[in-house]
Amino acid sequence: VIDYGASTAELARRPDLGWLRTFRGNERGQHPLDGPGTQDITADVAVDQMQLDHPATRVRSQAELLHGLGLDELVEQGRRIWQERAHAPDVAALRARSRIREAEALTDSSGLGGFVVLEWDVGSNEPHPAR
Fold it and tell me: Rg (Cα) of the chain, in Å, rounded?
């Protein structure tokens, strides 16, 4: 599960509607009641509540997940390709350069990289703790 999220206590400490987000045209929107139907509304997930019955195996940020999956190597490969072909860029060189910029956006801790990632190992034989 990948989403905006925080603990219930953290969400409760946020100022007025700090757990609610609006977007319009791929940018942050206004107050959720401004211009009904003109912006998307989403809410941060209370990650502790999602784990009450089945605690996640791992909880980390999207940036940590992507680095753990080998993003750094892909970015380095993109840099090498771009450096080799920058003098006469072709589609492969442009894709390589794009990989670098996309990785920056996906791992920015103040944006997408700050998404919370909850992971559950499926098929584990480990018993769940008694509640």
Answer: 19
Segment (H or E) for 61: strand 58-61
DSSP state of 77: H
Distance separating alpha carbons of residues 85 and 77, to the nearest angstrom: 12
Please, where are the H alpha helices in 25-70? 47-50, 62-68
Judge whether 11 and 21 are in contact, CB under 8 Å: no
19, 41 Cβ separation under 8 angstroms: no
Token pair for 57: 């195996």
Q: Is the pLDDT of residue 12 over 50?
A: yes
CA 105/CA 113 separation, integer angstroms: 7
- Rounded Cα distance, 129 and 131, in Å: 6
Q: Residue 35 has what pLDDT?
A: 87
User: What's the one-letter identity of residue 3?
Assistant: D
pLDDT digits (tens, 9 = 90+) for 32-82: 999 899 999 999 999 999 999 999 999 999 999 999 999 999 999 999 999
Instruction: Say whether pTM exceeds 0.70.
Output: yes
